């Protein structure tokens, strides 16, 4: 039985989608980091200035965005480990597909574990 | 006249520092360190205690009164921002086609990152957890002992 090769171009397989997600999560985390350094710098202005701005992190809308942030950080970090394993581990390319699904399950799972408690805090049930 | 052809399998001549290689390595060395630093940071600040509700000036002051967390956060700042800047540089290189635009964007990127690293480092190390003229209710509890002594 002949096996049709998958081709050398990305065609929506795990390799492409992990790359897309890694890039999007990375850019999102980068812009959050810029904002986060600036908001934290307000501790050097006054306790009042810092507290006023940090209150916005406890609102429902930003609170929901924080779930996305936690998910993005988990995915980016774990998928980064996957990339390192593909680069340096002799069996990395063999297991890259299953490793992607492990990364996704862990990222979604840990975010789901974090969600109820966090929502309770930002939505004021 | 004979033409001199380089031996095909001779190693590539490397006269200047291979910055691309060190950038590539930096991502793979800082990455695992950032996993430890940031996952702990998120766990301590958002997963434990009152989570996001506990974050205020007194919380930050309580952490930064300890040099351990000062150095933790400064290490995170440097490693993460340089990691992010190298990543954004890759994105810019992928999508810009005009060399002048590319140079301008990458230059702006490094300027912003450099300024924020400087700002963040100064904030952490010049931080006063008990600013003398502030409302005592907003300060960590240990400031009272300092004020009365």
Q: What report would you give on this structure?
A:
The complex is a heterodimer of chains A (125) and B (149). Helix content of chain A is 75%, strand content 0%. Chain A is mostly helical. Chain A has a single domain (17-123), classed as 3 helical TM bundles of succinate and fumarate reductases, CATH 1.20.1300.10. Chain A starts with 13 loop residues before the first helix and ends with a helix. The relative contact order of chain A is 0.12. Chain B is 67% helix and 0% strand. Chains A and B meet through helix 1, helix 2, helix 3 and helix 4 of A and helix 1, helix 2, helix 3 and helix 4 of B.
Task: Give a quick set of tags describing it.
heterodimer; A: 125 residues; mainly alpha; 3 helical TM bundles of succinate and fumarate reductases; 75% helix; B: 149 residues; 5 helices; 0% strand
CATH superfamily of chain A: Fumarate reductase/succinate dehydrogenase, transmembrane subunit
Strand content of chain A: under 5%
Tell me the name of the CATH class of chain A. Mainly Alpha
Query: How many β-strand stretches of chain B?
Result: 0
Structural class of chain A: mainly alpha
Poorly predicted sequence stretches spanning 5 or more consecutive residues of chain A: none
Proportion in helices of chain B: 55-70%
- Rg of chain B, Å, rounded: 23 Å
What is the H/E string of chain A? HHHH
CATH architectural name of chain B: Up-down Bundle
How is this structure best summarized?
Chain A has helices at residues 14-41, 47-55, 60-88, 96-123. Chain A is mostly helical and 125 residues long.
List the helices and strands and how they pair.
The complex is a heterodimer of chains A (125) and B (149).
Chain A: H1 14-41, H2 47-55, H3 60-88, H4 96-123
Helix pairs in contact in A: 1-3, 3-4
Chain B: H1 19-47, H2 57-64, H3 67-95, H4 99-125, H5 142-148
Helix pairs in contact in B: 1-3, 3-4
